[in-house]
Amino acid sequence: MKAALGVLVFGCVLTVRVGQAAEVESPAWCAEGSESLDSGVCYYTPAPAPEHAALPAASETLVIFLHSLVQVDSNWQWEQQRLLMRTADRMGFAVLMPRGRPGIGPGAAKNVLAWPGSPRMQEEFEAPLLAEWDRFKASVESRRGAPFRRTLIFGFSNGAYYATSLAVRGRYPADGYGIFAGGSGSKFNRILANNAAKRAPIFVGYGTKDPARAHMSSLVDMLADLHWPYAVKRAPIGHWVSDAQLQLAVRFLTRAPANDVP
Predict the structure, then answer these.
(1) Neighbours of 260 (CB within 10 A)
(2) Looking at domain 31-254, which of 1.10.10.1760, 3.30.540.10, 3.40.50.300, 3.40.50.1820 is its CATH number?
(3) What is the torsional sign of CA 44, 47, 49, 52?
(4) Domain boundaries, the chain
(5) How would you write the pLDDT of the chain (262 residues) with one tens digit per residue?
(6) Which helix (H) or strand (E) holds 232?
(7) Does the pTM exceed 0.70?
């Protein structure tokens, strides 16, 4: 009989059998506490709490969260998912956390999950991705017995660049967008935004220590120039999103528009 040895390495269980090749069990995609649906999509809805009564619109809101670049078989997405779940507990909204696709992000890296940022990748991969979101949204609405009154798209880093693209193209019927540590007011985005038939409000949150902060600053400038309904909150952080920024985004996008958030 061959002996088996279990070793914990970088959050993964490495099972080694003497005389055989090692077998690596990949970490689950969904963080503990969230529900894993088909296709690796995660769902979380908080238990009702007294503080949710202060923001009743949030309890009728679904946030679709788009993660950053995540290496296949990593658990980096857990930190992002936990942040959204923590904010959902505080604010009362439900959150759907889909999974990007390998090979469609910067450099078409096969071992990195991303969102289709380029027109070529959007033409090939976008329609089935958005159809997946609609399918799971309909599934959780059927379960809760009523449709959500509001759907918001939140994106972090690579997810924020893609969320910006969705917003300026009016590609998805969202009621608002939260753009965190990503997005830009590029010439291409300006052309698309200038011709947008629908201008759903956008919240921009980024860090003043983020190396890519100039991109987000240009996005804010573009929104201001086009008189697009928006709010912005800068924070003394790096390439991340704070709890406060997420909470302000929910408040802004579920209440009256404004051009600045204190």
Answers:
(1) 8
(2) 3.40.50.1820
(3) positive
(4) 1-27, 31-254
(5) 444 433 333 333 333 333 343 344 457 999 999 999 988 899 999 988 888 888 888 889 999 999 999 999 899 999 999 999 999 999 999 999 999 999 999 999 999 999 999 999 999 999 999 999 999 999 999 999 999 999 999 999 999 999 999 999 999 999 999 999 999 999 999 999 999 999 999 999 999 999 999 999 999 999 999 999 999 999 999 999 999 999 999 999 998 443 334 4
(6) strand 230-235
(7) yes
